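Students often ask what a holo structure prediction actually looks like on paper. The answer is less mysterious than it sounds. You provide the chain, you provide the ligand, and the output is a string of discrete structure tokens encoding the 3D arrangement of the protein together with guanosine-5'-diphosphate.
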Amino acid sequence: MANPVVAIVGRPNVGKSTVFNRIAGERISIVEDTPGVTRDRIYAHSEWLAQKFSLIDTGGIDIGDEPFLTQITEQAQIAIDEADVIVFLVSVKEGVTDADEKVAKILYRSDKPVILAVNKVDNPESRQDIFDFYSLGFGEPFPVSGSHGLGVGDLLDEITKKFPENVPDEDDSRIKFSLIGRPNVGKSSLVNAILGENRVIVSPIEGTTRDAIDTAFDTDEGDMFSMIDTAGIRKRGKVYENTEKYSVLRAMRAIDRSDVVLVVLNAEEGIREQDKRVAGYAHEAGRGIIIVVNKWDTLEKDNHSLSDFEANIRQEFAYLSYAPIIFVSAITQQRLTKIPELIKRVNENHSRRITSSVLNDVIMDAVAHNPTPTDNGKRLRIYYSTQVAIQPPTFVVFVNDTDLMHFSYERFLENQIRTSFDFEGTPIHVIERRRK
Ligand code: GDP
Ligand code: GDP
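The corresponding structure tokens follow.
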């Protein structure tokens, strides 16, 4: 089942990002140790009582230089368009303001459930002031204090109660992929070219997740794909669609729903910061990844062009060392036929399962060749390993003491696993646990 989406709306300064961070908790960690990847605080995953959901801070989506009221109107509109449940946040300190009423008017037009939360209720005395907010017309207000973490549990109980009974299931018979990248790298051109090559378009699948429209197609070889809609490909004609943050949000949502993500770069312009940010999120989300260098026709090429470009990518995207790189042109169609087969291969690797006996042979061999580290005379002992998950493949290694597992040794084990099995295109996770 697709995860429900919760959006927080409200005028500036009521505490949206404070409450957002409180709910998202430790889960925001967009490739922290990756240089050049800034944290994006508008979208996060969270979980309450085993119910997973995605969270959007609409306040983080700035709508260019538009006047204040246009900004909050657009942000409320994003919440209505994207969310299953809307949290309308106000502040007890200022009471009901004109701007709150403006937001309320827009939310009336939505048939999505709206929960009114009054923030900055830091002490019992201010609780009695929350009743003024009944006038906004959203029923009982929930008192919270984002900075002190008060009332957040009750608010989450109410949010999860309002989730739709059944968010539509994804169609798992098809390999789901998306193309992400900066504006102008050639995503739409690639989409059209890929669909042009694979003429057996089955159908646009409507309503898979809200108003996303996926395109299903089958190749001549009989492989079944579903291409997920991303920003800039199908516009719905809303003002906010042209803002950068919104396109980042759409890309993140598309990544969440994908098995394999095609990170599209522009050969003509080289690698930019924004490329790294979105690629970092795809990596963090544990998706299969292929780096697609488009507009390869625009370069004057010599014998080194390809290897130079590749070396540059390997350096700039060091954390994506597992991702295959393909150089294409949407215009001349160079190498486009390779894309579906590459997606298929990466998808297989992303779902690969290794039996415990084979895995343990590999790990024991690795240990025999490169002895485990010691600390103060105490040696790391590896007892047993097993694969606990796919998509991405995740391995648990049971040891005598997790503190003895150095980062470099974990890397070594990961590399041994990669050389023994085909995990091209997928991140893999190695987790150590102490054997009880
Ligand atoms: P946003 O513009 O709605 O995202 O608001 P912020 O989260 O940036 O918060 C605005 C200001 O309100 C900041 O100075 C916060 O520290 C403060 N703030 C947020 N939550 C609380 C709260 O629960 N109690 C108090 N007293 N201040 C808060
Ligand atoms: P998007 O914003 O990422 O969807 O990019 P578009 O598909 O709209 O392409 C942006 C521009 O780049 C358009 O003018 C395309 O014609 C051009 N373009 C796209 N792919 C290629 C390519 O492979 N080679 C060349 N020379 N131009 C391309």
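Residues 206 and 213 are 5 Å apart (CA to CA).
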